[in-house]
Amino acid sequence: MDKMLVSGIGDVVITNDGATILKELDVQHPAAKMLVEVAKTQDNEVGDGTTTAVVLAGQLLSKAEKLLDLDVHPTVIVDGYKKAADRASSYLSKIALTVDPKDEERLRQVAATAMATKDISAEKEFFAKLAVKAVQQIKEERDGKVRADIDLVKVVKKHGKSTEETELVEGVVIDKEVSHSQMPKQVHNAKVALLNQKLEIEKTEFDAKINIENPDQMHKFLDEEERMLKEMVEQIANSGANVVLCEKGIDDIALHFLAKRGIVASKNLSSGDMEKLAKATGGKILASTKDLSHEALGEAKLVEEVKIGDDKLIYVRECRDPRAVTIVLRGGSEHVVDEAERSLHDGLCVVRNAVEDGKIVAGGGAPEAEAAKDLKSYATTVGGREQLAIEAFAEALESIPMTLAANAGLDPIDVMVDLRAKHESPENKWAGVDAMSGKAEDMLKQNVVEPLRTKQQVLRSATEAACMILRIDDVVSAKGVKEAGPPGRPPMPPPGGEEY
After folding, report:
1. Is 346 a catalytic residue?
2. 458: which of 2, 308, 479, 492 lies 20 to 30 Å off by Cα?
3. Strand 243-246 relative to strand 167-169: parallel, antiparallel, unpaired?
4. Tens-place pLDDT, residues 157-179
């Protein structure tokens, strides 16, 4: 289910994304703040599995509390947890399945799994195809490894129409309009000049006075400025460019000359957009019009100005081999578009992880249940008090399928008994919680798959956070706390030696 978060000034966020919920929450407790950091790390590193990481960290602390009551020393628990996390991570590596970066069907299943519980779940297949196509377009091989930088997938949000009207543009969409009314609104077979130079007359760096004694000198002075601007436009036209995209300003006179030549221009683009344009069109960003040549120009089949609602956007479409793409997200309202963007981000991240690592596991709590079974047999070989900590870690892992069952309206105990029984035989290692049938089913056959990286990062970040909190035995009020308190609120009294 979703949460509606209302801020003090009345802003509303509707989401079920773990990282977003924790980011928006007003968290006061220092230990709770550390769990918020876990979600942030998970989101930054792998983009998915944030809720799993926080649930697991909470369960690890809950199980540790029972062990502390039995007089097991925190350092023993920490060592046991670390051993268990390493063992679980390497075990999942061993049983993970290999996926070919070109296997679009499997990658689509990975993306659809990440989006299945989101607001856009009804259109998950459509969005999964978009995510896979976008990542396939921007991926590149470096030193024999596949790399995909999802920052090269630009997401433009425009509310209006429905989410199904979302489109993937093989190029870049710029949130600017054509800078002069007389310029054409469409250019086919565009040759794009990317400039990082002002098409204006530079003001001198130092103070200077020009003494003008008669009107002729004034005319000459203005004519010279105009001649310099005209020369810049000539250089652009001579290079064969019919579209100019500039990171800085363009003088009105220069715009007039460009319009007369039928050249489309747009000014004050962001540096991020310029980099994406260079990747998409294959052009070079130049610091001066003097360096412009035919080879430095980018190419696109079509550059056009499109009106969406009250806004005008410039679409640079169908570039030859775009290494940057844009997804124009549509939706009925602003909240719908925002949540669709968060869901799409998760989808893009999991596809990137699967493409880069080439390893996937089944979802639905199957890997956690399988790793828990392995940890229980491993714990007996360790012995001593650490064995208790490893067994506690295994129980904490089982809380993931149990939470899934509870969220699906099933009885967690019944599902867990069924799941444990299934995992006793090796051929059922991918048995997980099927929310539809309410039973433990083979998740691989259901096409519920996730990248291995997501699971391994969950284990790492949850374990590290739990271990850090376990090592704390007292909360002490530090110097300067009173001054640092928020205005208008009395300073909080220091917590009275609470133990965790």
Report:
1. yes
2. 2
3. unpaired
4. 888 788 888 888 888 888 888 88
Q: Which residues contact 174 (CB under 8 A, 6 or more apart)?
A: 245, 266, 269, 273, 277, 313, 314, 316
Dihedral sign for Cα 164, 136, 272, 342, please.
positive
Given a cut of 70, the residues of the chain with pLDDT beneath it are 203-205, 481-500
**Among 458, 424, 418, 454, CA closest to 438:** 418
- DSSP 8-state class, residue 202: P
pLDDT of amino acid 435: 81
Say whether 252 is catalytic: no
Is 41 a residue of the active site?
no
Question: Per-residue pLDDT tens for 11-30?
Answer: 888 888 888 888 888 888 88
Catalytic residue from among 20, 41, 51, 52? 51
Q: One of 346, 374, 418, 434 is an active-site residue; which one?
A: 346
Q: Which two tokens stand for residue 385?
A: 């008090």
- Give me the helices (H) in 30-170, please: 30-45, 50-69, 74-95, 104-115, 124-138
Q: 15, 17, 20, 52: which one is catalytic?
A: 17
Taken in order of first residue, the domains within the chain and their CATH numbers are 3-98+361-484 (1.10.560.10), 171-321 (3.50.7.10)
Place of tokens 């962001």: 270
- Indicate if 175 belongs to the active site: no
Backbone φ/ψ region at 143: left (φ over 0), alpha (ψ -120 to 50), beta: left
Question: Per 3-state DSSP, what percentage of the chain is helix, strand, and coil (rounded to 5)?
Answer: 50, 20, 30
Per annotation, catalytic residue among 50, 289, 403, 454: 50
For residue 249, give every residue at least 6 positions away whose Cβ sits within 8 Å of its Cβ, in sequence order, or none. 198, 199, 200, 267, 268
